[in-house]
């Protein structure tokens, strides 16, 4: 599925109520597959979307928390956006990163320690512009 086709699919279903319910179930299934295969396979991989399993530290519990995310490569960086599929509140993984920016990424079987940086101002504008071009 090409980038244009994916965009059309997300535009058609992204903000629908039924997709939100289905999307949550798919996210659980994707995380199960990703963790079971060591990050080598999941639903996002099947859809040919660049993806990672992000492990953060729960800001309230201190326990590891995992989320499958689509990312955009930018040089050596992984750009992730906390859009939460258009919902009004930010996703838990984002709030966890704001509380503790140390995290781990699992991508295609490789684990990498990372330090997140919340982009603001001109940095955010520059990266956002690049994302919109892709």
From TrEMBL:
It comes from Nocardia seriolae. Belongs to the F420H(2)-dependent quinone reductase family. It catalyses: oxidized coenzyme F420-(gamma-L-Glu)(n) + a quinol + H(+) = reduced coenzyme F420-(gamma-L-Glu)(n) + a quinone. Pfam families: F420H2_quin_red. This is F420H(2)-dependent quinone reductase. InterPro entries: F420H2_quin_Rdtase, Split_barrel_FMN-bd. Signal peptide: none annotated.
């Amino acid at each position: 599925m090409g980038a244009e086709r994916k965009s059309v699919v997300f535009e058609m279903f992204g903000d629908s109520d039924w997709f939100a319910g289905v999307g949550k179930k798919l996210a659980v299934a994707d995380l199960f597959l990703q963790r079971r295969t060591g990050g080598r396979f999941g639903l996002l991989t099947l859809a040919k979307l660049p993806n990672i399993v992000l492990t953060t530290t729960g800001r309230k519990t201190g326990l590891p928390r995992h989320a499958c995310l689509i990312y955009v490569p930018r040089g050596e960086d992984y750009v992730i956006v906390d859009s939460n599929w258009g919902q009004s509140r930010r996703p838990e993984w984002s709030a966890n990163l704001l509380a503790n920016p140390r995290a781990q990424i699992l991508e295609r079987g490789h684990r990498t320690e990372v330090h997140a940086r919340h982009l603001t101002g001109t940095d955010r504008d520059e990266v956002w512009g690049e994302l919109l071009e892709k």
